[in-house]
Amino acid sequence: MSDALQYPMYGPKTLGQILDRVFHLQRANFKLFVGISAVPPATMSVSLGAVFVGIVIPFLVRLPKNPTPAQNAQMGFVVIPAMMSTSMTAALRSGAGRGHHPFQL
Question: Does any domain span residue 79?
Fold first, then answer.
């Protein structure tokens, strides 16, 4: 961390100086940057694991072993809209609703 204090208080003047300072700070504080970048994925993994254990597993245990066609239709009326709303939400969050296409060059 003391390496970061070598720079003067005034800011860099050129793009090369800015990039040099950024890469120097990243090299000097590599563990800090890795730690900071690991927190959101770890939090999301723990949250999704809790949802899976709390909701999905009990739901799967309660499903009938040999469902009738009527039960299949009832499950379809729940599962298909849930899948569609999840897919649409993911598409809108990824930018598809703002004219951005994921495969556009």
Answer: yes
- 12 and 38 assigned to the same domain: yes
Q: Which residue type, as a one-letter code, is found at position 88?
A: M
Q: What is the pTM of this model?
A: 0.44
* Number of domains within the chain: 2
25 vs 18, 31, 76, CA distance in Å?
A: 11, 11, 54
CA angle (42 as vertex; 36, 43 as ends), nearest 5: 95
Return the H-helix or E-strand segment holding 2: none
pLDDT tens by residue, 28-71: 999 999 988 888 888 988 988 888 888 878 877 888 888 888 88
